[in-house]
Amino acid sequence: MNLLALYCTHQTTPLAIRERLAFASREQLAAAYSMLQERFPETESVVLSTCNRVELYLARPSDAEPLTPPQLAQFLSEFHGVPLDEFVGEMRAATGSEAVRHLFEVISSLDSMVLGEPQIVNQVREAYRVAEEQGTCGPITHALFQGAIRTSGRVRTDTRLAEGKVSIASVAVGDFAKSIFDHFDDKLVLVIGAGEMAEETLRYLKDEGVQEIVVINRNPERAERVAAEWGGRAAPWSELNKWLGVADVIVSTTGADKPIVDAELFKKVRLASPGRTAFILDLGAPRDFTTSVGELDSVFLYDIDSLKQTCEKNRKARIREIDKACRVIEDETAKFMAEFYRRAGGEVVSRLMQDWHGVSKDELDRLFNKLPHLNEKDRDQIERTVERIVNKLLHPPLEALKDEARDGTPHGLINALKRLFGLND
Amino acid sequence: MLKTTVICFLASYGCAFACELVQLRWRNALGRIIALLFGAAGLVAHTFYLLRRSGQMDLPPLLSSAHDWLLVLAWIVVLVYLFVSLADAELSTGLVIWPIVLTLVIAAQFVTTSPSDELNHHRGWGMLHASMLVLGTFGVLQGFVLSLLYLWQYRRLKHRQMNNQAVRLPSLERIERFNRWSILTAVPLLTIGIVSGFGLSIIVKKVDLRMTWTDPVVIGGALTWTLMGVLFVWLLTQKRQPGKQIALLTAWSCGFLLVTLIGLQMLVAAVGTQGVHGAPVDREQKQE
Asked: Which ipTM score applies to this complex?
């Protein structure tokens, strides 16, 4: 399988580097796809960029020259304008079945900061959808991502990974916000940006009794939509400082390519409500708040990496579920690879079945002409019997083909079958 | 009545504290129940002891002596602690409460056990003076404990440490609210206690007022009361202050007040200074 995955994740790479390699906006993604197509023609590609990871999946036909990690690293370097030596050591690469297994682990949230978090499935689905929209998907990536979505479903039903408090938002609200505030019904929540994780955080905050929500987004329609959905109100971007000054809970996920709030600005706007405690959940990658904001008195700033400790604990508590999930992923990876290689011999199989069933049908027609006294029921019985005989005779060679396909495309066996059963082109 | 001694409840409280410490490592419901049972058993023994002392002296515990006064204070702390623990079994306030209770009970062994004649002759004023002071001091103690809890929780959140299963603390907002109310109620109570103390000195003609003003307990109490008064006014006049600032100020001022009050009582008992609060330690009774 000519598949290459190049990635950096929260496990391998600090946020400071990830945020420089992230594809923060839809426009940036479109530009990246366009550059990939230009640079690597006839290559399928899917880019997965979230706050926790930046991953590139590229696939080519089996007979094409395989892509190499340095080629993709060079692409990232040129696209983002980040010198290679600043990040190349932080990148990881996987090919073939390893790449498949990695994606299956990612979508099953085994590689997530919070084990079992549901957002990653939607993030992978969205990445796949955008790639389809950009016309960069092909047979391999279609099969790969559909297989990944199927695997995540199986992991969630066969294991208890998705049970309990597991997402970044729930950990942030449950473990930290609730240790700061006693109740939320009198708190003002400011949402900057309108990402999926911000909305999930809002759900948890709503459950805690939040009533006053203000949504600010550079895109007013998006802000209106989120505000309407959560019973809040939208405010124009120009009022950001005003709301920053009075908010108790700030959830930020703008997708801006550099921080939008620093300590100086925050200190200045908070003069409007001196002594007021602020809980800031910075879900942006790149981060929306500089780390110095968190050093101010009565300000509790949490970014994605701050939640690592809690996530690690959840991970340990669910170690048995991880083992189960790994077994599911191993099984699905093996099935996927076998199916992939079987497809390579699919043409031979279908021609063989077509030929044998064709021969049996011709012979049966001849037989029924000679025995016109047979009624419909008898004919039906005979047809079924013959079909079963053909299937049983075909079973051993097809099973052998399937077995061989587990380790790669069974070119030798395919050629043998072609010669033995006269399936030459 | 059972012949309970200080050792009985001191040992129970010590065991309760040990159970709390064990909970840090092995958190389980059984350990928690055992800790509460030790606390409750200690409280029962403590109550019997105070009643017996009251019966022996033929005085309410608050008027008996500085020894009984400190033990009443410890008794209130344990009672409130048990109530809070039953209301929210997950809170880890015992880690802060038990050292304070143990300190109070041990300190009670080093202060006078003899009653004051003046208080005995003017029971109404005496009860007002002692009860207001003990309740006010309890408010100060509560403020001190809450401030420590606030600073502990604040530090955890600033350092982004996850909620430790073994140590669960209340939210900052809740601690801040309780802390504010502790100070706002403690200072008026202390004021009434101190003013009634001066009133009592004036009423009792035979007490030399000059002696009152040179009594270290009176001087220390007045100084720390002034400090608490400043904190009180600051809390009332400032619209909103950072919680950490309140907690730091409260911890320092309350800590200072507690150390001064208890320390001076011990000092006075040790050097045998004569004055309103200067009755010498009754060695015979202390051995009980």
From this structure: 0.74
